[in-house]
Amino acid sequence: MEAVIDETKVNRLIDEMTLEEKAGMIHGAGLFRTEGVERLGIPKLVMSDGPLGVRFEFKDKEWIALNLTDDLITYCPSNSSVAATWNREIAYAVGDVLGMEARGRGKDIILAPGINVMRTPLCGRNFEYFSEDPYLIAQLAAGTVKGIEQHDVSSCVKHFAANSQETERSWVDVHVSERALRELYLPGFDAVINEAGAGSVMGAYNLFRGEHCCHNNYLLYDILRKEWGFDGLIISDWGGVHDTKKAAESPLDIEMDITYDFDNYYMANPLLEAVNTGEVAEGYVDDKVRNIIHFMIKHKMMKLVMRTDNDKEYVYAERNEERSSGTYSIPEHRQTVLEAARESVILLKNDKKHLPLDKNKLKKVLIVGDNAIRQHANGGGSGELHALYEITPILGIKSHLGGNYEVDYTPGYYVPPREETLKNWQETSLMDESEKKAAEIKFAESFSDKHAEYRAEAVRLAAYYDEVIYIGGLNHDYDAEGYDKADMKLPYEQDKLISELLCVKPNMTIVMISGNPVAMGDWIDKAHSVVWMSYAGMEAGNALADVLFGDVNPSGKLPMTIPYSYEDTPTARFGDYPGRKLTEEEKKIIKAHLTERYNEDIFVGYRYYDTYDVPVCFPFGYGLSYTAFSYGEAGCGVVDALAETVCEINIDIENTGNISGKEIVQLYVGAKEPKDGYAKKELKGFEKILLEAGEKKNITFKLGKKAFSHYHEDKGKWELEKGIYTISIGSSVSDIKTTIDVEV
Ligand code: BGC
Description:
Distance between the termini: 39 Å
Shape: globular
Largest sheet: 6 strands, mixed
Strand order of the largest sheet: 15-20-19-18-16-17
Number of strands: 32
CATH architecture of the largest domain: Alpha-Beta Barrel
Number of domains: 3
Bound molecules: beta-D-glucopyranose
CATH superfamily of the largest domain: Glycoside hydrolase, family 3, N-terminal domain
């Protein structure tokens, strides 16, 4: 399928270009585009965010939204929602929507998906990411990328690498052991590049071991280009470049930024000067241009033909008419995102089997909580978009129930309105906003009187209703780009509100909408029915209603652990997040504000809680169903450490309830006697299967060498270690139904 590229023509095309023309192709000439070379037919490269849908249009050179009517788009579930489905096909289908819509909007690159590891529950951008587990990230992100790439448009996987926090995001110097880098932070990128064929990668803002990621030769050259043979485009995050010579001589292809002085970008006029004075060899520029030309041919943006003018033969880049044209906001896409949203809903508690709600027993329903009426699409940072529509939970519930029910709403807590400005937040997004944010949060929390007033009203009303549905959690004032959260506490005094409501209505249904784990310890033991979802896209409200009323059996599971509090997390315990200030001596060598060691090493997420026996509120992989599943004994096929499939594990799963449902069967591997520094178990396989009531299926997991290998820093490679491994199969990392020991 891939176009065969005629290198002679490519080289001739480059020879025909002036240095200025070449430089124009390797830096932003508008906020989301580079320059083309019109006289040679080379188009501009046009990009858009991602990852929840194609972002709305801005003026070419200013952060002013155009507020068009034709950029209303399909709002897809966030990656944190896609991950909750644990469904590879859904990840692919969502990628398919993103790719087709990006192309439909005339884009060449969609800046998605975000695949960073959820290292701490405080990271403001976790909703754009998939999971705390590298295997789950790799499996799902690969599907998304494949879905995108089939539309002659490129994914741009971000942010490479070790970009796990927003605090001082441009100026934090990350130090992580080689083993943790290889085992946790790289596998997602490895999979999307080497298995799924991602066309481009975005360098992260942060520094890595003393050098900014966007001109970090270890990350970009040694790993990306050399080790993985990546020949796609490397694009900087917007404002991620800090040095002309370093950027020019590194494998970075395109510099993008948020400022309007496009000609002064490091790879614009300063680069021309550096080449003209001989400080940087022109060959570096040619290499970048060559990559861009290859990229354009592969993504069918153009094809190279020979033309003759005044008897002179030259290469011309002609528009490739075979390129898909894409489309957007079509009904099929809404169906896809509805299905994805449905599968992303996670049932956390259903102690009294109060859910699904029985419509025949309901008359009066009270809905409490701002997330019932809040639309999330247009928030959160660069992931914002203008959705064609967004079904909020209250709309979903009302349209589900129809007119014969009394459905009332009371906010329960007060969310101060966001300041309306003409300009977009992104214009100042590279300033450290932590202080401003802290002030905003303080402001939001200064409404205690108002919260108390709203709370009293909700508690008073609750007694008069057959059913109370609480819909709270976080929103994009908290789950947002540019800053991290101060703690895991629910904002707006929700803990008090929920506790008081539970006293009046112990069977209240609680729905948490959030892109990050939140502390629920104050009330979780008293609650009977708790549902979790993230920002699940334009059909979120319908999907939620489908689950609450039993039209859809919930089948999502947590792609991350929900600890009780921030103090329980590995970053808190090992204590270097969000990093410390550099000493004066260090500042002389490294241009950074903070330096941070990932002291928890590989003990991120459940690798920590599970291994160190730290009690958590809800474990990784957890989620209930309206039906029940029973697990048989695991059986093991041949074990051959030299074969591609080292061993095959099979198991029977049965739906023992009386409705059909989907179960996510998870397989974890760990040494029978784990050595120090190793996790008790690690996710190495999962299958989501549909079982009718009473149905039993046998599933087989094929485990390759990687499942039994770890990265050995001394040897500089992954190595399978001989020994006895315990393979655990279960419905979450903590609910292991059967184990089997294999000797490898
Ligand atoms: C974000 C990127 C985004 C880019 C363009 C940056 O601030 O970190 O994820 O793609 O802006 O909007």
